[in-house]
Amino acid sequence: MAMRSFSQVGRVSALVAFGVAAAEVLIMISPFAGFFYSNMQFEPLLGVLSRSPVTAWLDGFFLSHSVVTTSLLLEWHRKVGLVLFVLGLCGFFLSVFQVYGNKIMKRGVARGFLYRFVRHPQYLCLGIAGWGLLTQWPRFMLLGIWVTMLFLYVGLARSEERRMEERFGEDYRRFAQTRGAFLPGSPIHRLFEATFGRLRPRTIRWVAAYVFCLALAFSLGFTLRAYTRASTVILWEPRHHTVVVSAWPKPEKWMANVFQAALRNQQVRQLLEKRGGEKAVVATILSPEYGMKGMYYTIAADQRSEKHNRGPMMGVDPDSTDKPVEVVFSQAEKPYRAGLALNEALDVDVRLTPLLVVNVIPRSSEATGVRIPLPQNAWGPNVIMPLF
Is 263 in the same domain as 226? Predict the structure, then answer.
């Protein structure tokens, strides 16, 4: 009875972990994102995390999301993530159908398809789908949930195997002896036994392994973030206390020309001077037809001059069109303290509050329009968005 209760709790916990990770990703790409954030309490949760230096980094991103980097590896990984998500879900559902099909037809232990290679392909496929999902919305918090989800799957698998042995006896034991749990040859299990397997009692070894894997995942996340930042086109303008980030990789001279064109507009200068010149500013150059503008700013409904048609997620190369780019000036801040040095403006726990949106035609270095956005992104004033 206790074993069955553990299995039920573990299954619910795993579903909740995967559901939280999936929910934020799906909500972020939904046209009803604002509604969901205000009604499902995502914004208050993320807002609470961002108010403490201990947890604020969990809101940050460890991979590129809103810019095109100079790294072929990062751009390749972004595309492969979608494929992994789809393949993982397909493998999961096929494995589930096979298990329940065997149960309905009373064929005994499932042995075909992916079960030819491993004992728990459904959990393996969910782990792959979870990573694919993570690449599309790579927040540190979701990385921690993904690691937690993997450990929950291990617990579920062990519980299910006990029940299978009770039901099928020697038939299942012969099946299990010829297949790894999640990977052929069980390399992860062997590594676990060689490192944490000697710890006693069993609970200690699993807690130690979980803490180690969580720390390792976050360490690798920060390494990936450092690589992402190094692969992002960035221009520092200390004279204006501003760091310029381009959503499309362009030369620094091009970025400087666009930035200076925006500053030559009198209205822009007045508005920036009004807020004080010592506060760190991030100026993000969004490419024409950029499809994720809501991550950087939102305009009040009664001030929108035209309906925005979503283009490609990353927009198009500014050199391929005469359409203007948008320079979004945002104040960089850490919600848990006052003041921010310019060299901290791209830290993992920085939140951007939009100040101005300036349209600039790169070829003529002409600013053609200035708009004042709401002091928040499209998902709320307390939700940290990716810096790059």
Answer: no
